[in-house]
From TrEMBL:
The keyword Oxidoreductase applies. This is NADH ubiquinone oxidoreductase, 20 kDa subunit. Keywords: Oxidoreductase, Ubiquinone. One of its GO terms (molecular function) is oxidoreductase activity. Residues 15-151 form the NADH:ubiquinone oxidoreductase-like 20kDa subunit domain. PANTHER family: COENZYME F420-REDUCING HYDROGENASE, GAMMA SUBUNIT, F420-NON-REDUCING HYDROGENASE VHU SUBUNIT G.
Amino acid sequence: MAARPRLGVFKLASCDGCQLTLLDLEDELLAIAAAVDIVHFPEASSDMDPHGRFDLTLVEGSVSTPAQLDELRAIRAQSRTLVAIGACATAGGVQALRNFADHREYVRAVYATPAYIETLAQVTPIAAHVRVDFELRGCPIDKGQLLELISATLVGRRPDIADESVCMACKRAGQVCVTVAHGQPCLGPVTHAGCGALCPRFSRGCFGCYGPRERANTEALADHMQAEGVSAASLVRRFRLFTGWSEAFRAESERHDD
């Protein structure tokens, strides 16, 4: 009988939320466990295979320290397919906010003995350092997209995850546009779908936690929001919050940062 594909799950700088999405699959997790060998998943088990060969590797978290960079390179060398999961792994995450200031000031302010802290000058996504075969966006990632990724990998095809905006999810759900109806600032037109338009469903504008979609016209959206009375400072905060180190959102926030 052919050996089952080997799955590894790793964490860098993150909150663990995307790994928990895998554990929260509940009934589907049993089917996954029957189809693959989960050989490295410290969040779920201390029983780890030391051989270090992975057919599919899921990596959560950003690269924030020299040790994490070394670990990531070792993971890449051992992995046939490597997938970055979540906003931290794909765009630096909330912790990348420190990239817009001097990281040494944060170290001095937070830690009683800064000399013991070893950190990189910038927080960066995984793709800044190694080849990534696919990215799952979100804070945290979506259960359905994760299942599609694993299923596609098992049969050797590319995951069928549409590159569309949050606005499309709003329209399919019959959701009233929070910008048109309530004048709320919303990053939905430029943000990758996957969350099911969660914030607009509760009458709140999108905060961009799935990062920019391909060819996102952030400049047009920001100019419209500013014309509607949104301050430059508010634009900077909104574009930087969850995925602010992604290229499109970073460029737009810097355009309004005086």
